[in-house]
Amino acid sequence: MMRMPFGKYRGCYISSLPNDYLRWLLALRDLREPLARAIREEAASRCGGPDDTDESEDPFRSIIPEPEVLSLADRIIRTGYKRLASQMHPDTGGSHDGMILLNIANHFLRSQLRGLNQ
How far apart, in Å, do the first and last CA atoms of the chain sit? Predict the structure, then answer.
């Protein structure tokens, strides 16, 4: 049993990490072995996959939502972006840098959603 060596869950067993944190760890490209392998194996075990997953394969990628869920996710992204843009835009008291970060986050979320749609 391996424990997390850093972060919010430092000292916790990898098997006890929440799914969202495990997904975040899977997205990190600079994790070193044996931690990277332990995280991939844990993610695969939660999805019912084999323990020896390919390094480039994301086990959560195989979970593809229904079209209705994808449409709703798109609406959530659009609505959240519009609301935050009205707060973060420089003309409404926000900052230029904040707006740039919001646009980057919006682009990232939309590209992730498009990736699920393919």
Answer: 36
Q: pLDDT for 13-53, tens place per residue? A: 999 998 888 888 888 888 899 999 999 898 888 875 444 44
- The count of domains in the chain is 2
What are 13's strand-pairing partners?
Answer: 3
**What are 3's strand-pairing partners?**
13
Q: Compute how many other C-beta atoms are within 10 angstroms of the C-beta atom of residue 25.
A: 21
Q: Which of 26, 62, 65, 55 is nearest to 43 (CA)?
A: 26
- Chain centroid to Cα 10, Å, comes to 19
Give a yes or no: residue 4 inside a domain. no
The span from the CA of 58 to the CA of 66, in Å, is 19
